[in-house]
Amino acid sequence: MASRLNPYLNFNGDARQAMEFYKEVFGGTLDLNSYGDFGQADAPNADKIMHGMLETTSGFTLMGADNPPGMESEQGGSYSVSLSGDDDAELRGYWEKLSEGGSVSVPLEKQMWGDVFGMCTDRFGVPWMVNISTTS
Which residues, at least 6 apart from 131, have a Cβ–Cβ distance to it below 8 Å? Predict the structure, then answer.
């Protein structure tokens, strides 16, 4: 396998819902493993996600997990997940699904550099940037 770089998102108890949401947005194959699946069946967090991975037909890989008890995190503090390309319909479709129920900080519209760009935070607190190239 070649080396690859992909986002790994941390959640405070709603990783299952978030990863299932991203599967609805991007499609693909979702593999979820709970703490209970890895020998912690009696632990209070047994149903929480220890590791989740979504692999899409577009070649995206998105991973995520619930933080273990006592390791809370602030969502969206120092990162954004960026989607970019020139497939207008595909990227607008992702934008619509990601921004629904979340908040839009920059509407998806033509920008001074010529591309269509927007920024939103989805309903799970994950910030997204979408850039649709309009130049060849």
Answer: 82, 83, 84, 85, 91, 115, 116, 117
pLDDT over 60 (residue 136):
no
Residue type for position 84: S
DSSP string computed for 15-31: HHHHHHHHHHHH-SEEE
The whole-angstrom separation of Cα 56 and Cα 77 is: 26
Q: Measured between alpha carbons, how far is residue 95 from residues 12, 22, 45, 110, 136 in Å?
A: 24, 12, 32, 14, 22
* Cβ atoms of 53 and 30 closer than 8 Å: yes
Q: For residue 28, what are the contacts with CB-CB under 8 A and spacing of at least 6?
A: 54, 55, 56, 57, 58, 60
Length of the chain as a residue count: 136
Q: pTM for the full model?
A: 0.83
Least confident range from 5-9, 24-28, 124-128: namely: 5-9
pLDDT in tens, 16-72: 999 999 999 999 999 999 988 877 777 778 899 989 999 999 999 999 999 876 766
